[in-house]
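Anyone up for a design puzzle?
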C-alpha cells in the first residue's frame, strides 16, 4: 500500500474538499457526506502496513470525525463544536492488529486499580481494541471496539460498544451499542452514529443517527422486540431517551420507557454520513 493510495482513500471518504475549515483542517465541505466504510478501509490498510499514517493522512482521519460531528449538529440545528479531544496533544501508539488494556492485579492481591485498565491521552490506530476506561483519547479501528467507560474521546470502528460515556463521539460502520449516555458539564450530549443499528439503555441528551435503516434484525435483539413494527427491527432502540435527538424518521426509532424530557425527531435535509 503506497502512501499516495492511503491518502487518496482517506480523501475519497470525505468527498470533494475545498478550502480549509477551522477545526480541524480538512473538514472543509460541509455538504459532503463522509464515508464511514472508506475511512475504515483506509485504517485497515494502515494496520496491514503496520505503519502510522503521515501528517496528511492523519489530518484526513480527524477531518472525517469532525465532518460527521459538524453534520450531526447542523441537522439537529445546534451550534457546531470542536471534537472532544485535541488529537495534536496525544501520544501516538504503535499501529497494531489488536490493542487491549489489560487489568493488572496489585502485588498484594485484590482488584486492579482503575489506572491499570485505562487508555488515556493516546491516539490509537488498530484492527480492534478492548479495555476498561478510555479517556481523552482517539481510537480508529478497522474492526470491533469495546470499552467499559468513555470520557472526552473519539471512537471509530466497525462495531463499537461502550457501556457508559460522557462527551464522546462514537461512529460504527455496522452498529453502536451503549448502556448509559450522560450529558457533559457543558451540556453537550454524546454523538452516536451507526451504519445500520444503534442500541442503548439510557440515551440522555444523545444525538443519534443511523445512516441506512434496513429493518434487518440486530444480532442481539430479542426475537420480538417490544413496540417494534411487525416484521421490522428498529434502526434505533433504547429504553429511555431524556432530551435525546434522533436524526431519523420516527418509524425507525423505538423507545420503550418514559423520559423526563421527551426526545426530539429530526429528518436531516442532507446526508450526515454514508
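Challenge accepted. My sequence:
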Amino acid at each position: 500500500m503506497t502512501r499516495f493510495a492511503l491518502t487518496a482513500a482517506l480523501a475519497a471518504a470525505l468527498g470533494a474538499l475545498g478550502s480549509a475549515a477551522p477545526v480541524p483542517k480538512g473538514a472543509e465541505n460541509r455538504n459532503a457526506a463522509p464515508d464511514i466504510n472508506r475511512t475504515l478501509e483506509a485504517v485497515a490498510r494502515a494496520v496491514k502496513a503496520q505503519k502510522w499514517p503521515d501528517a496528511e493522512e492523519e489530518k484526513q482521519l480527524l477531518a472525517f470525525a469532525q465532518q460527521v460531528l459538524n453534520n450531526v449538529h447542523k441537522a439537529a440545528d445546534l451550534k457546531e463544536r470542536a471534537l472532544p479531544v485535541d488529537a495534536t496533544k496525544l501520544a501516538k501508539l504503535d499501529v497494531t492488529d489488536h490493542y487491549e488494556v489489560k487489568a493488572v492485579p496489585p502485588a498484594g492481591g485484590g482488584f486492579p486499580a482503575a489506572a491499570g485498565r485505562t487508555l488515556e491521552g493516546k491516539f490509537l490506530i488498530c484492527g480492534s481494541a478492548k479495555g476498561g476506561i478510555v479517556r481523552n483519547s482517539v481510537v480508529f479501528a478497522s474492526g470491533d471496539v469495546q470499552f467499559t467507560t468513555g470520557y472526552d474521546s473519539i471512537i471509530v470502528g466497525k462495531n463499537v460498544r461502550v457501556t457508559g460515556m460522557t462527551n464522546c463521539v462514537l461512529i460504527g460502520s455496522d452498529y453502536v451499542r451503549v448502556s448509559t449516555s450522560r450529558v457533559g458539564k457543558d451540556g453537550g450530549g454524546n454523538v452516536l452514529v451507526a451504519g445500520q443499528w444503534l442500541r442503548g439503555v439510557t440515551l440522555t441528551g444523545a444525538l443519534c443517527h443511523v445512516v441506512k435503516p434496513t429493518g434487518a434484525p440486530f444480532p442481539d435483539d430479542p426475537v420480538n422486540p417490544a413496540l417494534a413494527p411487525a416484521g421490522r427491527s428498529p434502526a434505533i432502540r433504547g429504553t429511555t431517551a431524556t432530551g435525546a435527538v434522533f436524526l431519523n424518521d420516527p418509524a425507525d426509532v423505538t423507545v420503550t420507557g418514559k423520559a423526563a424530557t421527551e426526545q426530539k425527531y429530526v429528518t436531516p435535509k442532507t446526508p450526515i454520513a454514508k
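A detail worth pointing out: Residues 87-265 form one domain.
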